[in-house]
Design a protein that fits this description.
By secondary structure, the protein is an alpha/beta fold. It is built from 23 helices and 13 strands. The chain binds 6-O-phosphono-alpha-D-glucopyranose.
Length: 545
């Protein structure tokens, strides 16, 4: 057993949570509930009053955080301690959005100057591409960027670019390729002109199969359009921490943007991995994104736990996962530009906290990271919200919405907002049997039928949700929002005593995938694996059922 589940606070939380009344009652008991359970920081507003909590719950949750030495752990991350203990690395994505006059030490040296140099290199490149000074091999300006990368080297740039669509500068479009399925790159290249296309290859390791294969195919396509080997330098740039491998691959040394081991892939959009974002929205907007994240870093590092937005959100997630049996958490973006956010937070949280041993290798005896999923409101209301309202699983929800739309049109935004707030209300209050029956008063059904239908219309309520608001979706508020979830993920990992910054779980699949690839290309059928794997490989070799 771990010390965590043996702690007095843990046991007190177990006893306490089973005694809390329904949220309807909690609201009725305390007219100040909204004021007391909401917090504003960095252009974001969090209403967390629709949670299964009262002041005692919060006290216990913060006590748990203090017993986990959370404040020390936060400080250790910011100052560059080697907290990723299985890879012996500092975790310093926060340094990427630091201010030029800060000093942050990793492996004995101040890393801020190289962060600033890389930002300056990005700025020069972005300016030259956007202004048309950067010419393709026939002297034409670049019109299309194809970003090739996967995992952290793909989702951040793609989802942030999508979210910042209103800030795109004229004249440049970007296409993202991640999957090794040739359909992805073939479909993207259709309709593109090699003379005006720039490829940004993003791979921290410069060793990821999908990215290398897609880049080679892009290069072949480029040469097949009539370009020559020397033209490659005008059309291919790379972002990587493995400069040697990138040069060996044939990338022009001037076209390589560095990143560093102390940036985890899923935390890397703030580095040169964000180059596609900067190319689309311009360097000022990219810096505003960094600034929003920096503001959230400051808030996280210096605010008492009780008013600390990422800490509050993380402790609520711990509450549901460890004391209410919740195994999943839904992100509901009430903003079309933010439709990709659930996928981004899914990678961030599930790759970080999908772990089952503690830092020292002890098996955990409690749940760690939940399944993160979600989608775009209002669409989900006509689909999976049914399960949120009446299903048997408890699924805490985050509703995210800007108060102002980039596209004010008639009553659209009023309707969007009313749906968002109406959903959180319905989840919280539910509908009792008597209320459901009363609604059927004027129907033509007989008493027995009314009773049956009323039973089906009962909604238990007491379903937790957070509502996160911002004035408007801007680069700054988006930066703060993403950093909020990064730190939320960190806090959960700190409570669970796990390493949120490695990802050994993805390795075995890669290893076996390479072995399977060799067997697919072998001159005889596979016979040495389990019967299922042998049969699947051999079916594939045959090419038909
Ligand atoms: O940037 P790369 O080295 O190509 O890595 C791309 C991605 O692949 C890995 O398998 C990891 O699971 C991700 O965290 C990483 O972002």
């Amino acid at each position: 057993m771990t010390t965590l589940t043996q702690s007095t606070t843990w046991k007190a939380l177990q006893a306490h949570t089973s005694q809390l009344p329904h949220m309807r009652e909690l609201f009725a008991q305390n007219p100040q509930r909204f004021e007391q359970m909401s917090v504003k920081a960095c252009g974001l507003f969090l209403d967390y009053s629709k949670n299964r909590i009262n002041n005692d719950t919060l006290e216990l949750l913060f006590a748990l955080a203090k017993e986990a030495n959370l404040a020390d752990k936060i400080a250790a991350m910011f100052k560059g301690d080697v907290i990723n203990n299985t890879e012996q690395r500092s975790v310093l994505h926060t340094a990427l959005r630091s201010k030029p006059n800060q000093q942050i030490i990793a492996e004995g040296a101040n890393i801020v100057p190289e962060v600033q140099q890389t930002l300056a290199k990005m700025a020069g490149f972005v300016e030259s591409v956007q202004s048309g000074q950067w010419k393709g091999y026939t002297g034409k300006a670049i019109t299309d960027v194809v970003s090739i990368g996967i995992g952290g080297s793909f989702l951040g740039p793609k989802i942030v670019s999508q979210a910042l669509r209103p800030y795109w500068q004229a004249g440049l479009n970007c296409h993202f390729v991640a999957n090794v399925d040739a359909t992805s790159i073939c479909e993207k290249l259709k309709g593109l002109n090699a003379e005006t296309t720039l490829f940004v290859m993003s791979s921290k390791s410069f060793g990821t199969q999908e990215t290398l294969t897609n880049t080679l195919s892009a290069k072949e396509w480029f040469l097949a359009q009539g370009a020559s080997q020397q033209d490659i330098a005008k059309h291919f740039v790379a972002v990587t921490s493995n400069v040697a491998k990138a040069t060996e691959f044939g990338m022009d040394a001037n076209n390589i943007f560095p990143m560093w081991d102390w940036v985890g892939g899923r935390y890397s959009l703030w580095s040169a991995i964000g180059l596609p974002i900067a190319l689309l929205v311009g360097m000022d907007n990219f810096k505003a994104l960094l600034d929003g994240a920096h503001q959230m870093d400051e808030h996280f590092a210096h605010t008492p736990l009780e008013q600390n937005m990422p800490v509050i959100m993380a402790m609520l997630s711990v509450l549901y996962g460890n004391f209410h049996g919740a195994q999943s958490h839904v992100i509901l973006a009430y903003d079309h530009y933010l439709r990709g956010l659930p996928a981004y937070f899914q990678q961030l949280d599930m790759e970080s906290n999908g772990k089952s041993v503690t830092l020292d290798g002890t098996d955990v005896d409690y749940s760690t990271g939940p399944v993160i999923w979600g989608g775009e409101g209002t669409n989900g209301q006509h689909a999976y919200h049914q399960l949120l309202h009446q299903g048997t699983a408890l699924i805490p929800a985050d509703f995210i919405m800007p108060l102002q739309s980039h596209n004010p049109l008639g009553e659209h935004h009023d309707q969007l907002a009313s749906n968002c707030f109406g959903q959180t209300q319905a989840l919280m209050q539910g509908r009792t049997y008597d209320e459901a029956l009363a609604e059927l008063n004027h129907s033509k059904l007989n008493e027995q039928e009314k009773s049956l239908i009323a039973k089906h219309k009962v909604m238990p309520g007491n379903k937790p949700s957070n509502t996160l608001l911002m004035d408007k979706l801007t680069p700054t508020t988006l930066g703060a929002l993403i950093a909020l979830y990064e730190h939320r993920t960190f806090v959960q990992g700190a409570i669970w005593q796990i390493n949120s910054f490695d990802q050994w779980g993805v390795e075995l699949g890669k290893q076996l995938g390479n072995d399977v690839l060799a067997r697919i290309g072998a001159d005889k059928d596979a016979t040495e694996l389990d019967s299922s794997s042998n049969a699947l490989i051999n079916l594939y070799r045959k090419g038909q059922l």
